[in-house]
Amino acid sequence: MPLHGLPEHRRVGPSGGRAPGRGGALMGGTRVFGEPIPRREDPRLLTGQGRYLDDLGRDALAAAFVRSPHAHARILDIDVTDALDVDGLVAIYTWEDLPGRVAEPLPLLIPHPSLTHGRTAYPLARDVVRHVGEPVAMVVARDRYLAEDAASRIRVDYDPLPAVVGIEEAARAEHLVHDDVPGNVGAVLEQRTGDVDAAIEAAPHVLEFRLDIERSASMPLEGRGVYARWDADDGSLRVYSSTQASTSVRAAIAAKLGLPPGKVEVIAPDVGGGFGVKIVHPWPEEILVPWAARLLDREVKWTEDRREHFVAAAHERGQVQHVRVGFDDEGRVLGLDVRILHDHGAYTPYGVIIPIVTSTQLLGPYKIGAYRAEVVSLYTNTVIVTPYRGAGRPQGVFCMERTMDRIADHLGRDRAAVREVNLIRPDEFPYDQGLTFQDGRPLIYDSGDYPALLARIKELIGWDSFEEERARAAAEGRRIGIGLGCYVEGTGVGPYEGGHVEIDTSGRVHVATGLTSQGQGHETVFAQIAAAELGVPVEDVRVTTGDTRRFGYAVGTFASRAAVMSGNAIALAARKVREKALRIAAEALEADPRDLEITDGVVHVKGDPSAAVPLRTVAVLSNPLRYAFDEEAQRATQFAVGGDATEPPLRGEEPGLEGRDYYSPVRSTFAAGMHAAIVETDPDTAEVRILRYAVVHDCGRLINPRIVEGQIHGGVAQGIGGALYERMVYDESGQLLNASFMDFLMPYATEIPRIETAHLETPSPLNPLGIKGAGEAGVIPVSAVIASAVEDAEGIRVHSMPLSPDDLYRLRRRAERDESLRTRSGARAARERAT
Amino acid sequence: MPLHGLPEHRRVGPSGGRAPGRGGALMGGTRVFGEPIPRREDPRLLTGQGRYLDDLGRDALAAAFVRSPHAHARILDIDVTDALDVDGLVAIYTWEDLPGRVAEPLPLLIPHPSLTHGRTAYPLARDVVRHVGEPVAMVVARDRYLAEDAASRIRVDYDPLPAVVGIEEAARAEHLVHDDVPGNVGAVLEQRTGDVDAAIEAAPHVLEFRLDIERSASMPLEGRGVYARWDADDGSLRVYSSTQASTSVRAAIAAKLGLPPGKVEVIAPDVGGGFGVKIVHPWPEEILVPWAARLLDREVKWTEDRREHFVAAAHERGQVQHVRVGFDDEGRVLGLDVRILHDHGAYTPYGVIIPIVTSTQLLGPYKIGAYRAEVVSLYTNTVIVTPYRGAGRPQGVFCMERTMDRIADHLGRDRAAVREVNLIRPDEFPYDQGLTFQDGRPLIYDSGDYPALLARIKELIGWDSFEEERARAAAEGRRIGIGLGCYVEGTGVGPYEGGHVEIDTSGRVHVATGLTSQGQGHETVFAQIAAAELGVPVEDVRVTTGDTRRFGYAVGTFASRAAVMSGNAIALAARKVREKALRIAAEALEADPRDLEITDGVVHVKGDPSAAVPLRTVAVLSNPLRYAFDEEAQRATQFAVGGDATEPPLRGEEPGLEGRDYYSPVRSTFAAGMHAAIVETDPDTAEVRILRYAVVHDCGRLINPRIVEGQIHGGVAQGIGGALYERMVYDESGQLLNASFMDFLMPYATEIPRIETAHLETPSPLNPLGIKGAGEAGVIPVSAVIASAVEDAEGIRVHSMPLSPDDLYRLRRRAERDESLRTRSGARAARERAT
């Protein structure tokens, strides 16, 4: 059954109860596309057979880094004398030792007109350090212990400078992070549609408030790591990196080291989570380690330790938002004005993509009369800020959904009902928000059914019957609350990905795409796509990702784009291979290609399984060499010897049963979802316990519901971390006080409730498979949902995240204190400021 | 200036005096295509910077082989006990240790219907050895010395069997090489056109004689070698082999070791000559060394030593030919009947391609009334016989040209005049010889001007004034003679080659093709082709050959096919890249692609050099990533951010300024040449000295005359070796008596005269560049030319090659003895038998 047709919008029940839908390809009676088959990588990964960065290069030299202990300081001197005594020391490098382009500042990856004062770090600090953890010297030694020993003996003489820590302090600009960046302002950007001032002025109701979102971080269980081998015979460099963007790392290394890109192989091996931090490239270590490997002509490896990951990788989230919203009596938003102060840390290698995403994705499933977002992106003497799963969306959704709850509260209306009146209707797609998306293209939602999502999440969580539940709990002396959060997520951002599909002469199918995997299940879903397109058992398909040897052009894994971009590219490539296989088989079978089909890896005449040729033989026939290396293949090629003497042997085909194609969409596709939770708050300890968590999710056609649900579960777990636990605690001197897993709290499985999931499928009209991205979805609305539910339980206002028991306790106290203020309310004149 | 048009037939003067012709591409005032630029590989190769097989893997374990000392024996027992004491021994393998497909006989590469009894060897002898040198056991040790020590301690108990040595003994079949091959006959094949018996019967004159051509061998200065690395992390194998066919070696290793081809990388590094012996694949060592490397998870290397190359690689040439020819009074051949006994050695891994070539290429530039060649290809207990430069053609030309000389002698006519009347005329092309070529396709000559070649060689050597010269020499008591030899060579055999051309973001051009190089100058000529097509300086072009990582599909380097096949594929690929560059540049320059040209690596509007964009920037623009790694590129991509929002970023193009194409001809193209020599024979020592040697050569359009001349010079030198020095001297027990460079004579520079060369260019109409192959040309007619000249000097008949002073001395004695026989002659009844 071909996949070309997009199935009609269909609704699918909760996990496990999914009804067999249309549109999947049948394979020997088993549907491949759309089926919740187990993850093919799990037997390997769950039995410890994964090959992560640190599993490689066991004989390699080890690198360690001397990192700044100061948030801001001038380097006066670096004295390596004592380190030279360490037995097994191979080399010590400081900025002075770096040649040519290796010594230059790292590239600014995503220039944007708003980023008027972009700044990047030197790979090793040149004269000033701007955050604790900034690398100052690299040590290479026989093993990591010796390298650390030597690093600890290097004495760096610093002249400390005042540290700028926190958004307010950055905005005050009493001190500057970069001497030549006035006001610490890296970028000012605005998104607007309509006349927001006039709209708010004319609105029956206006609210104004402030929101605070703390810093958190991707925090993959495997940190970063780089392992490089120089091949002097070949003049080539092989670099393994725990990266989300191997082709881009390759481009950076090639440029920095002056090598042709073809002489640099970058491979992302098994990667233990990325969540965004590994999309940054090149990390200084990704340049320095390969450079040293070539210079020393020795294998060199560096594996990030956890403290390094806290202070020398990247953070995200930290924003302060000032909201002003005008709305009518039903809660319809007439004008929304948001001022966002964004803390981008000490440098901007990844540009200002996060606040761009926040300011454009904030509107979610709603149509807003007029909108303006102004972003000021600020330097601080802290770790750089780059995208972390959700990438600015959790902050935007927190803002929008807090706004919806405030409107409902103000009007005394049901929170869901207020959202309902603002939703974009199904007949309004494609819906143009009138903004410019992160890819520089108009922000146009391709498809969706937001009212259906809302109805479904209400049904799933029992929204309309919650008051009975609350009453029952109250009767038991328990406080419970219900919360809701909605979002739309631009996924599958361009510009492109490519896929390569090859059927070899053993019948194995090799699928390659350039983007990388960090555990998402690409080996499974890409194999499902190829198997469905080709008509082969999914077991016969092998998938390679993130290996520049196999596919040299790619963008990378981020922005929930892998399935949309590479999935469609692989489908297109597989269709080319299928067509080619049918042409060649048709000749061998003396049939019309249109009369053929492929079942279980065998091309046969429809309705006549005896007129058949296996794909492995088609692969032999595809290459008009005069011989092959097994008997069956040799028999097959016998026919081809000599061939039709009037035609060239290739007959206009390229040799090999393989095909390559690219998918490059006009614009992104927009997934959506709504989450709801019921929480219980402890009256004494102020602990928040999540009793139920429900997700309705629409990422278009599902390739594998099990994997989508896994993504949602992981995302919700990470979102719960952000909602209740995770924060980066800096002191005023810029020291990160909780830079370890002892002090930085992340949820265990014990903190994560069972997540009830249902799917809606509104296929994307933008791509052949009708799919949308799902990788980040789970995390996006969680803070908003939890805040909403805690507010509902407590009758207080939650304006910052995360919300620790301590925070909640303080909010309760403040609420009691402010009780008198609460009584003030009014129609148009209401102005309220929450801290 | 485009290369697309084929220049008209033009005549070019002797070396150095070549007049500027038409059709070359002008590059900054310098013609690139067609110019005799110096070989770009020479600075590297001539200063010892080449990286040959044995330069690699210095830390690898070493393999050595126990080889049979018997030409034919049954293996009773292999006792390795004593070898186990050798310190540093890692492993010993015999056939019993080989698993699965590794244990199977090697593949029979080119099956042919005539090869009814093809046999191949086991990689290690299983129970019977069939030639001295056949591998029996493999030893792996810490270094080669230790491996050889251990090998020498392995005791193999043999039961010797009678050895079949020499064509006559094989044909007698008193003993069999293979029990199951009756008569020792591997193949019987026939080529025929017309009714040869009737034609000879009706001919006014008939001659019958026998010719003997000795065995020789390719004898590259670098022997074979294999170096393998298993990458356990990657599950991949990298194999360096001194091979002429890296993709085929890869296919064989993958099949034998059960690896996907994509997990096997085969690289031919710098290779010190091949001349055919390295096209055989897989050699047993090419399977065994990688197999051991994977098994041991250690690098393993084997480098062939000279004795191994003599007894365990391959030989060629050895044939006995029985000729019967009928002709008219002018010497026009009416019927030619040749019976060829071909010695193919102990096994037939490469099929019967050599006698196929002999029997089809024998006719040379002549049209023969009726023709029949019958080949019997025989097993002997000697080293296998596989193609060596010329690959059966020297034997065929020896036969045909000896026949022409015999006819001239018989009729008392000028030897050149007899050839003249038999030549195919220029207006007869395409000329169908009515035979089936080695590729299974009709033997049709595409173009040529044989009368012009003959006129030119006569002019160059001074044919018509030679009698005066002879008289002057005779007056000085010196014997001199003049000889002539003509040939046509099918070159550029299919089925295909491919080329990949990429311009990277630094402006460097990377050209890759799958076939291999053995010193021919591919780095130079392929760069010339790409530079001319692209409009870039030849210095900016880098060429990679024989590296499966860079190009995975190829046939290999043999049959004078590299320039024709890969050269045209590269030209076609470069044209794609040029078109793409013009499209992209046109957009950047807001111009029409048709108004653009490329000069010195810069695309510019014709006549307006200011409206220009360098190719390196076009390369950046070709990949719609959002960033690049140098400032100029980043500026260039600024324009591309966002792009035209109505179009997908790729706009239907694949990313990257690169292109791939294949060239697959309907049939081969036919080069031709004529050689002439003047020799002096010493009346006392019977030494033959070559006074002058002239070549007129037509390989279609010349890419680089200097390289073509280098090929001709090397070929003539190798031909002189075959004509005067080289032979494999086997004793009756199958021992090769001269298996070293002390005993096997090859000419030094001192034996090679200055070679006078002139070119004719009759472009091939079959390929875009109009070129024909030139790699083997030089060697083909040399034996015939020298035989002709010695006959002319001595007044004797030369019916065997090589001709040592000893041989000549014996011929003189026999001639004196046979003087009386010489007087017998007559018209139709003449029958003569020479031994």
UniProtKB/TrEMBL annotation, chains A, B:
Q: Report residue spans for region: Disordered.
A: 1-46, 816-835
* Annotated Basic and acidic residues bias: 1-11
Q: Which regions span the lipid bilayer?
A: none
Q: Which domain of life is it from?
A: Bacteria
| UniProt xrefs under InterPro entries | Ald_Oxase/Xan_DH_a/b (IPR000674), Ald_Oxase/Xan_DH_a/b_sf (IPR036856), Ald_Oxase/xanthine_DH-like (IPR016208), AldOxase/xan_DH_MoCoBD1 (IPR008274), AldOxase/xan_DH_MoCoBD2 (IPR046867), AldOxase/xan_DH_Mopterin-bd_sf (IPR037165)
Q: Where is the Aldehyde oxidase/xanthine dehydrogenase a/b hammerhead domain?
A: 47-162
Q: Which SMART domains match?
A: Ald_Xan_dh_C
Keyword vocabulary terms for this entry: Molybdenum, Oxidoreductase
Pfam families named in the record: Ald_Xan_dh_C, MoCoBD_1, MoCoBD_2
Ranges annotated as biased composition (Gly residues): 14-27
Q: Which GO terms describe its molecular function?
A: iron ion binding; oxidoreductase activity
Among NCBIfam families, the record links this protein to:
CODH_aero_grp5 (NF040766)
Tell me the protein's name.
Dehydrogenase
- Species the sequence originates in: Actinomadura rubrobrunea
